[in-house]
Amino acid sequence: MVSRVIPVDDFDLVIFGATGDLAHRKILPGLFRRFVAGQIPETSRIVGAARTQMDDGQFRDEAAKAICEFAKVKKNDPRLAQFLELLGYTPIDVKGEGGWKELKSRMRDGAVHAFYFSVAPSLFGDIAERLSGHGIADDNSRIVVEKPFGRDLASAKALNATLAQHFHESQIYRIDHYLGKETVQNLMAVRFANVLFEPLWNAQYVDHVQITVAETVGVGGRGSYYDKSGAIRDMVQNHMMQLLCLIAMEPPYHFDPDAVRDEKLKVIRALEPVLPEDIVRGQYQASGDQPGYLEDAENPDSRTESYVAMKVRISNWRWQGTPFYLRTGKKLRARTSEIAITFKEPPHSIFDDTGAPKANELVIRLQPNEGMNLKVMIKEPGPGGMRLVQVPLDMSFADALGAEGSDMPDAYERLIMDVIRGNQTLFMRGDEVEAAWAWTDPIIEAWEDSKRAPEPYDPGSSGPEEALRLMHRDNRRWREIRS
User: Fold this and answer.
1) How many domains, the chain?
2) Is 159 part of a structural domain of the chain?
3) Which of 150, 197, 329, 435 is the most buried (most CB within 10 A)?
4) Mean per-residue pLDDT, 18-31
5) Any residues with CB less than 8 A from the CB of 245 and at least 6 apart, and which?
6) Residue 354: is its pLDDT beyond 70?
7) For residue 346, what are the domain limits?
8) Which active-site residues does the annotation give?
9) Residues 19 and 49 sit within 8 Å (Cβ to Cβ)
10) Which residue positions form the known binding site for NADP(+)?
11) Residues 321, 203: contact at Cβ < 8 Å?
């Protein structure tokens, strides 16, 4: 199988916060990989903008170090030298007037203009105002904004209103890197390009759905930030909500940005309020020489959750009666992200009890080892009667696609190229963000009112015991967390 690389149009991309961690780890290495793949025209320009005083040469040196480290390329690679020629740098005062005239002078007529806000959300308004006021951005420009998109409904509305003062909704790209993952997009292909699954994708045939995002790391190094958000703000309200929407949404009339996002919005608005007994919050504790959450957050009185599990219901014809179980946490047994759709068992078995068929299960792995796995029942080979055994039909992208599968574009690479193309399909719309917060806010408020501390759990475990009971009372079990 040969993948096609379709070049994008000539562009000028400005990265605000270009000296920060995200630019070093993801944005610059991702752009380099797209350049090597032949997707970025050699005439394009990438301009770093930040408070740090440096010139073009110094920024190129800094970018080269980041690309060598995170894109695994050697310093003397001639392709790196070619890519660095695209880079420039302008020191900027986002709250003042310094640097804006110089930045405008770098913008070329006729090129796509995109501006990546890799900065704190508190600076979005200042940057948007100055881009507009100095005539750097026009009606055809695009801006990319990183999460968090507010910390509640009120702040999300305020942020959307601020951006709307200077940019149309069609120009705003709210980036969620989970939507750039190959497997997430393949979820839509599996559902809507194959007659095999879509007729079964409803409450009549699906017993339940599990969405798991587990991490082995704690919050050390970003404890003060994380302690103000917690697992539900950091993961559930955005990443996991998007995965839920893609699983549960109705087929859009066309693979079109607004058509897809209209259907996702309908799912969010159909979510029922979560009952208190259907939520479990956890907090990893100290173990041996490993610090606990309270030490990592440097807040001995913190009631912020590092783990959350919940049972979610969707009130519509397709999913009435089928529960969705969501869980995410830090310091768990393995690093893994997956969606598991468990189908109902056959209504009648013609086999004896020893050969009773088990439920089919479709597992979509987002990380690591992206791919899909469908568990089906077959006859166990050999003589001795009809003995059934469940086996996986496994498709790892690395195995199925060979070298191409093991070298798939990073999510940021794909999404930035979509920005240049002007394709908003994999980006969140303003009303979508606000609807997600409208559902999440009452959950957070109920926690705060209860003043109940999160359940403790051991590092390297699957989470608190209460989360196991959440499933057991429904006669179901969480899937094992493993890499």
Assistant:
1) 2
2) no
3) 329
4) 95
5) 263, 264, 267, 268
6) no
7) 179-409+429-472
8) 239
9) no
10) 51, 93-94, 147
11) yes
